Amino acid sequence: MADSFSLDLPQRPRRLRRTASLRALVEETQLHPADFIAPVFVVEGDAAPEEISSMPGVFRYGIESLITECRELAQLGVPAVALFPKLDAKLKDDEGSAALHEDALILRAVRAVKKAVPELTVITDIALDPYTTHGHDGLLTTSRDDVDNDRTVAVLAKMAVLHARAGVDLVAPSDMMDGRVGAIRRALDGAGFHGTGIMAYSVKFASAYYGPFRDAVGSAQAAGTRLLGKATYQLDPANRRSALTELALDEAEGADIVMVKPAGPYLDIIRDVRNATQKPVAAYQVSGEYAQLQAAAKLGWLDLKKTRRESLLAIKRAGADMILTYFAKEMARELRG
Ligand code: PBG
Fold first, then answer.
1. Measured from the CA of 326, which atom of ligand 1 is nearest?
2. How far apart are CA 78 and CA 35, in angstroms?
3. Residue 201 included in any domain
4. Per-residue model confidence as pLDDT tens digits over 19-52
5. Which CATH number does the domain housing residue 297 bear?
6. Helix/strand/coil for 224
7. What is the pTM for the complete model shown?
8. How many domains does the chain have?
9. Test site for ligand 1: of 40, 174, 225, most ligand atoms within 8 A of the Cβ
């Protein structure tokens, strides 16, 4: 007795964690390159890609280098890109009118990518923040203290039709105006684009984790503040039930894919949404989630490869079918070995 102390345990869960092959057999969640959507920033011109300072390893591409990047993503097995334009400041105005220009950068980018890499799914953001001087996702009310919901929706519906005409596979309204998914669906169908899908940013929180993205598209400087307040349209981070209200509305209005954003700090919401819908669920690991891992890794405080994998695994385990992540390319490369 004295030399072998042992508990009388019928259940010893550690038995299945004893070897790598046993652990592989009982592993419940796996990441694949096909889980990822790569967000990619686009600029005018053909200069060398410029790195975004608050997002190391993430670049803004001119159309030519964008195509190279998209080819590489497709070859690595990443099935989709989400394109975001950064406009020259001189093209921005109060009404975001450049969003409806027939030769807008984003439309040229979509046409070029669909032509060069037709197998890649191309997704575009439907919102006015890259186009407005104030950096809001919509048009302002006359008192200029809020976004005018219905006037904004009318513009977004037109914008979605332009994107569909350019050949985009999915439009992704990220603006959080009420009724925009329904209006976009009707506009697309009215113009004959029955096959163009809607990936709705259904559950998008008013998050401080969007800071680096606003640097990337230049909507932070334009607004004069890094943490532009969008609390009258984006969800309160304190709320779970509102998330399900937004989900139900977007589903009823015709969303094909629903999204939760940000992802990592909102795993409970991803699970709630997964349990409440039969639609595919996307989650967006946003710029600030990427930046915090990069920053800690740079200081030598975290292992970048291990933490990025764990962060993505957690998002998938929570119930996401697909993940928008700035780690898409590196992660796909790593997974393919
Ligand atoms: C704007 C938009 C934002 C993001 C995607 N689309 C920022 C915002 O709402 O201000 C954020 C993405 C990220 O942080 O990576 N329509």
1. 15
2. 7
3. yes
4. 999 999 999 999 999 999 999 999 999 999 999 9
5. 3.20.20.70
6. coil
7. 0.96
8. 1
9. 174
